[in-house]
Each structure stands twice: as C-alpha cells, then as structure tokens.
Amino acid sequence: MSELDDQIANRRAKREALRALGIAAYPARAGVDAEPSAVHARYGASSAEELEEAGVELRVPGRLRAVRDMGRTRFLDLHDGRAKLQLLVRLARLDERSRAVLDHLDLGDYLVARGRLIRTRAGELSLDTAELGLLAKAVRPLPEKWHGLTDIEIRYRQRYLDLVANPDSRRVFELRSALVRGIRAFLDARGFLEVETPMMQPLPGGATARPFVTHHHALDLELYLRIAPELYLKRLLVGGLHRVYEINRNFRNEGISTQHNPEFTMLEFYQAYSDYLQLMDLVEEMLAGLAHDLLGGAELACRGETLRLGERPWKRLPMREAVAGALGVPVAEVETAAQLAGWCERLEVERPAALAAGAPLAGQPGAYGHLLMALFEARVEPALIQPTFVLDYPVEVSPLAKPRPDDPRFTERFELYLGGMEVANAFSELNDPDVQAERFREQLRARAAGDDEAHRFDEDYVRALEHGMPPAGGCGIGIDRLTMLFADRPSIRDVILFPLLRPERG
C-alpha cells in the first residue's frame, strides 16, 4: 500500500469514528454567519478594545489549512479561498462533541467554528472558539503544504486543486469574471440588448471553421454545435433589434494550441447604422476602459512587453501595407496572385488549406486573398505587439463583410491584434442579399474543391436579408484571449477553468 493509500485509509477511519459518535461527516445544514473574507472586510480595522466592547459572536466556516498545537491551546487557520481567519481553540472550553471533532480533524476538512471575535496579543484578528463542527470530511489529502502545485498537467486536469493551492489561479478567474461584467456594463450603458441564440444549429455559419456534428434522435436531424452566433444575431437586426450582443460559447473542431481551445467564449455585438470604422473607436474605448477599471491604468504587462492601450487612437494598418512592409517591398509588389505565390514559395510559407494541393498557387480561384492571408499570418501577425487594427481583408477570406466601395477586392473588415495575438474581428456587415448569395455560392465551390472549412449556403439568412437589414457593424472579441492578455498568461488553458484534454490513461 502506498503512502497516499495509507493517508486515505486513516482519514476514512477518522470519519467512521466520528459517525460512531453520532457526528455527521457531511451534515445537511451549515448554519453559518460569515466566511473569513467577509469577517475581515467587516471587522478587519477594529481594535481589540472595539471588538471587546461589541462582543461579536459568529459562526464562521472554512477549509482547515493549518494547525499549530501548543498543548492545551491550538491555533487553526480557516480559509475561504480569499482570506484566512485564525481560530483560538482552548481545549478546556470545548464540549465533548467539539473535542471529538478536533481530535479527528485533518488538513483540508471543512469546519464551522462558533466563537467571539478578538485580537490576540500579537494583534491578529481571531475567533475565540467555543464550539467546533464538521461540515465535510476530506478523505483525500490536498497538495502538500498547500502551495507549489506546479505540475501543469495536474493543474489543468484537477482545477479544484489548482484553485486551492495557487491563489494566483483564483485571481485569474476572478479577473475573467470582472472582464465579462465590465463588458456587459459597457454595452448595456450604450443601449445594447443581451440576447441568446441557438447553440445547436441546422447549418454551421458565421465563420469559416470545421464544426462538431451531433444528431437529434427525436427529429432524426443532423445538427452542428455553433461555430459562431453571427447569422442569428444579424437576423435580429432584420427584426428591428438594432443593438444586440451575446456572450456565448462557440465550438470549432480544430487544432489545440496555446491560443486555441475547441470550446471557447466570445462576445459578439452588432450595431445598426454603424460601420467598421465606428466600431474601432468603440472597441478602443471599451478595452482601454476595462484596463483602467480593472488594472488601475491603461497599460498591460504581457510576456515581457508593456502594451500601451491608453495611446489612442490605436494604429490602423491595411493588410497589403502590412505584408509589403514585412517583405521590405512597395505595395505594388503584392498586387497579384503571381507575386504573392512567388513570395510564398521563396519564404516556404505553408500552402493555404483553401487552395488545392498539387495545383499552381497563383491560378486557382480566390488565390490572391488566401495567399495574402497566408503571408500576413506567417510574417506579420507575430510582430503586432502594440494595439493594432489590421484593415481591409481580401474578399476571399471575408464572405460576410461589405466590399470597399473604392476597391471591391477588399472588404471593410478589421482584426485587432494585441501582444501578437488576434483578439477581435469586425466587419461592416454585408446586407445585399444577392451579393451574399453569390458569396455563399463561391464558398460552396471552395468546399467542392476540398476546403472543408468553407461556409455553407444559408438560404434562410439570405431570405432574411431580402426583407431588409439596416447597414450595421458587427464585432467578435475572444474572452479567453482577452483574459490571457489582462492576466498575462501564456496559454489559453490558463484562463479556461476546464480546458479540453485527452482522457487520462488508467
């Protein structure tokens, strides 16, 4: 038997001993007044004299984190994840039931203590304990010494241990929650309506991605977990809801990396009578404001860099200019598919998945846009550290965006980059039903040629556009990536409570 097995067996024996004494190991009622963090918030500034005069009696719950045995007196530390409260336990004051609980405790147990708040001679806020009760017996020990859980695999698989052992992890997820609250407050204050759209869809749409497929048995219907809520949100624009947003879960059956998880959280919002230029200003205002409110300033420390969100307006960089600059050539040398194909071959840039293998790069339909995108991702994207809006994406990679009036090869689309990572994607939304239908047909042709991420033809969405959708701007912001930046974490798994992992092998 291993040491761990011995510990578990010992803890189970203590639990059974308590049960034999009529003490429940997992009682149905807790009967508590305040957790340690709330006690400190309310009484942390009170002096010993003030506490004595007030005579504050409380029932305080928490997880047992430390025991210091001084003979007839013991000091116990109760934690709630945010703060600890010291229990001063004088054995002579305890009744028989409380003594039994005390004698059968282990680190990690959940307790409730009743007593009077005092300050010890050392000045520490403490509970002079008169009664101890067990709330939950921990039969498996927690990480040794409650700190230093560094095994990243365990931290991801057993997030509950990570949260107990690493206070920084808890702060990351509290920051994530605060980001979402701040986003909601920002949009609510500007008249946006929060809505919900289907997570199971008969057609996957709103992005170019491989979907997860499921089956509805009652309807005998193949369904897809949504890759984006975009087409449903724009249907609401048609219906007269002119400012809408959703903080949603999306699912994409793609690779896993430090920036990608198959299940992720997005903010998407749409504003009628707006365009991508206006949305840039809105996104700047929102993110710079969040940094100021949550971090105390408009600068982010990220991977050894300082991201200056307060220096507005943020850089606007057309994609062609970005690629030409990275290659060290004039824009005129990235104007044709043949030019881009030459650069891709010389720089050994991976062939875009949308272009057929074995065929010449330059002669295929949509080659220009896909090659420009491939060069951008390979040569430009990693260097975009400071806030940068990359503008004017090729029409081939932007099937839902309005074309530029002055050059229909490109669309009114931007992506926001921070710390070398794409954080937001926005369009002036295409609202011409005939152009949208043709874009869908082009995507179908790409699918037939082997691009399994190409968009499906959504007939109902085209029908909705035929009823008239006002001009609008729409934007998606990745909550997970935004949290990575605000919390300065290198991997998306650090900011998702339960990231997808391979099952453990038995």
In the CATH classification, which architecture of the largest domain applies? Answer: 2-Layer Sandwich
Low-pLDDT regions: none
Q: What is the number of beta strands?
A: 20
Helix fraction bin? 25-40%
Shape: elongated
Task: Please summarize the sheet with the most strands.
Answer: 8 strands, mixed
What is the C-level CATH assignment of the largest domain? Answer: Alpha Beta
The number of distinct helices, counting runs of at least 4 residues, comes to 15
CATH topology of the largest domain: BirA Bifunctional Protein, domain 2
Strand content: 15-25%
Mean pLDDT: 93
The total tally of domains equals: 3
Q: Gap between N and C termini, in Å? A: 18 Å
Strand order of the largest sheet: 6-10-11-20-19-18-15-14
What is the assigned CATH homologous superfamily of the largest domain? Answer: Bira Bifunctional Protein, Domain 2
Gyration radius, in Å: 29 Å
Structural class: alpha+beta
Layout of secondary structure:
Layout: H1 3-20, H2 36-43, H3 48-54, E1 57-69, E2 73-79, E3 84-90, H4 96-103, E4 110-119, E5 125-136, H5 152-157, H6 159-165, H7 167-189, E6 193-194, E7 200-201, E8 213-216, E9 221-225, H8 230-238, E10 243-251, E11 263-272, H9 276-295, E12 299-302, E13 305-308, E14 315-318, H10 319-327, H11 337-347, H12 367-379, E15 388-391, E16 403-404, E17 407-411, E18 413-418, E19 421-428, H13 433-448, H14 459-466, E20 472-478, H15 479-487
Parallel strand pairs: 3-5, 6-10, 14-15
Antiparallel strand pairs: 1-2, 1-4, 2-3, 4-5, 7-9, 8-9, 10-11, 11-20, 12-13, 15-18, 16-17, 18-19, 19-20
